[in-house]
Please model this.
Amino acid sequence: MDHSATTPVDPRVVEAMRPYWTEVFGNTSSLHSWGEEAAVALEEAREAVAQVLGCRLSEVVFTGSGTEADNLAIRGVAWAARRAGRGNHIVTTPVEHHAVGHTVEQLRDLFGFEVTVVPVDRYGRVDPDDVRRAIRPDTALVTVMTANNEVGTVQPIDEIGAICRDRGIPFHTDAVQAAGRLDLNVDRLGVDLLSISAHKVYGPKGIGVLYVRRGVDLVPAITGGGHERGRRPGTVNVAGAVGLAEALRLAEEMREAENVRLQALRDRLIAGVLGTIPDVRLTGHPTERLAHHASFAFRDVEGASVVVVLDLEGIAASSGAACAEGEPEPSAVLTAMDLPPEWAIGALRLTVGRANTEEDVDRVLEVLPRVVAHLRDH
Ligand SMILES: Cc1ncc(COP(=O)(O)O)c(C=O)c1O
Model:
């Protein structure tokens, strides 16, 4: 029940990747036929990704992770603006993943960028008008995530995109949680840069993509050779790229049917938890949320303890963002949503996926009330 943390690699994806470690192992930069063969596979993978995003092949940049895609987008555009002598300001939200939040903070602290953090409402949603008001003549970039990892809230990306386009400001979205779950057509979303990661969509870990709209000026965040048109140096992970492409293609193929199934499981889970456990709230938006994502706050219980006890019962959950696990403080996302600390420390995220069934949900509904009651008594 923790598919927002990661997913198992689909066996069809493993099969698609298999030849690219042993038989077709060439370096895509080599001039000989071994290299050429690998380069062809890489371009086919790029084409499959471009198909899902509705973009040009040249706009797809393979990266080493979703984190790296976010870093490249934000640092790359900010530095390009700095190089061109325009732009010293970044607009973002308080609910971004650390891959975005910490990158923006570093640009502020080490490079002198000014940052406007637009507020979110109690569901974690941004008002596009706040973004409109935050944009200044020297704004270099707006970055707002497509869907939140902790609370599942989906942002009005197309509306924010229209505002940014109107003002000629590059707009980045972290779509790592949205991939395989929402329509990622970059024109419909109205974005200029978009990050995804394979391991959230039943692909391998350690491979991501940054979509970069033609014409967007980008300084590479790391320096090296001319790979990925100079935007992401380093010998390309061909097996990873093939795996990401196949995983994304399959996820897109299954998306609508799977969303219907997962949403039914999610709603059963939400209704069961809210109906049986006292002092619990749903966190995130009640309807504008990812189909697989249920998240709660329990008053006066530590979410991390709930996760540990659920694990003993054979149930994997998260108390918020997996990467923030071990941090005792209430999550910044829930704090930004104005959730009082005595609720925010009791955050629990349950995210269903392809392998889950109604029986799994019912088992959680049988175990969780007992676990929460027990922890509250001790
Ligand atoms: C919203 C969001 N952005 C970025 C990332 C980072 O992606 P990766 O694990 O590929 O570095 C994650 C993963 O937890 C995420 O949920």
Observations:
- The first helix runs from residue 11 to 17.
- The chain has a mean pLDDT of 96.
- DSSP finds 13 helices and ten strands in the chain.
